[in-house]
Design brief:
This protein is mainly alpha-helical. The protein is built from nine helices and no strands.
Amino acid sequence: MGSLAHKVGLLDLFVSLIRWGAVLRKAGDWKQAATAHALASQAFLEIGDKARSVIALADAGIDLAAVPDIPQAKEVLNTAISKTKGVEAREVAVLQRVVAKEGEGRMALAALLWSEGGQRGSAETVLGDACVRLEQLQADAASRSKAGAMKKQAADMATASASLKFSIDDDVPALDVSCFRFKNPVFLESLGWPKDLQEKVIKLETLR
């Protein structure tokens, strides 16, 4: 029981880091928000929670897109995207959140690449991969529904909702994250993205 209580205490601490990152985002302190998200990512990784670690790391990369050091933002986003492979979780809702965040991270990376004139081919590839992953997320959810898994998925989501309330985009359900919605400024605002990054992804979606 002692070890369980200790782990619960650590989770509360890590969740507080994520929430602090959200507060810093809203205050426009993107550098410190990135630091908070990166610390949370490392902390979750150290207790074996790879799913939440990846989600927090992707958020750190998105934060860094508002800081002049764009190369670092791209590096962090690439790292987060690569770490989504093989992530496992007991709750379907947590895995859905990982895929949704992967798609969000890919869209952010594509927008940064597109803003660099010589990287537009790479940007289109990353964008295409983002859309494929988000479509797979929707298809998997539809398949589960058709297979009569709605009741179990609802239970999973209820369980996960109690343990996954830490991300800036908690108000955006994973299944609401789709490729075409990144053209919508209201949707981008709901994700908590930096204004400059919002403008870049809209420009990408408009001009590609």
